[in-house]
Amino acid sequence: MRRIFLSFCCCGRLGERASGLFCGNYVNYFLITWLPFYLVRERHFSMDTMAKIGGIAYLLAALACTIAGWLSDRWIAAGATPSVVRKTFTGGGIGLSGIFLGLAVVSGPWFAWGW
Questions:
Q1: Which of 61, 62, 68, 88 has the smallest count of CB within 10 Å of its CB?
Q2: Which is nearest to 49 in space by CA: 32, 60, 35?
Q3: Helix (H), strand (E) at residue 34
Q4: Residue 1: what pLDDT?
Q5: Is 75:85 a contact under the CB 8 Å cutoff?
Q6: Which distant-in-sequence residues (6+ apart) come within 8 Å of 71 by Cβ?
Q7: Measured between alpha carbons, how far is 54 from 9 in angstroms, rounded to an integer?
Q8: C-beta neighbour count of 98 within 10 angstroms
Q9: What angle do CA 41, 35, 60 make, to 5 degrees?
Q10: Are 40 and 30 in contact (CB under 8 A)?
């Protein structure tokens, strides 16, 4: 049992998987727990406005996933390695999420609505 555990931990992919899952789950944690509290308490949005912003975030995420899936399929069909394509889209998505989270923190309600 110990040998199986050590071979699993030392194969190199455990760290990649763990960091990818952490980053993806961190965005979900942010959207579910911190964003509503932040919008209501700090930005003084009403509960209705906060729900609309939270809903828009999930709709945009679904749209981005659909477009990214289509683009990655096209890239793989053009001859790219699936591993490189998936890692590129995963890293790019995590990077964009970080940028948008930072912008949401430093900007006011004007930016939250996108006007």
A1: 62
A2: 35
A3: none
A4: 61
A5: yes
A6: 89
A7: 37
A8: 13
A9: 140
A10: no
Half-sphere exposure of 103 (CA within 13 A, CB side): 11
- Residue spans of the domains in the chain: they are 20-113
Q: Tokens 């996933």 — which residue?
A: 65
Residue 55 near residue 32, CB atoms below 8 Å:
no
Tally of residues, the chain? 115
* Cα(72)–Cα(51) distance, integer angstroms: 31
- Helices 82-106 and 47-77 pack at an angle, to 10 degrees, of 160
pLDDT tens track for 42-101:
888 899 988 888 888 889 889 988 999 999 999 999 999 999 999 899 888 878 878 877
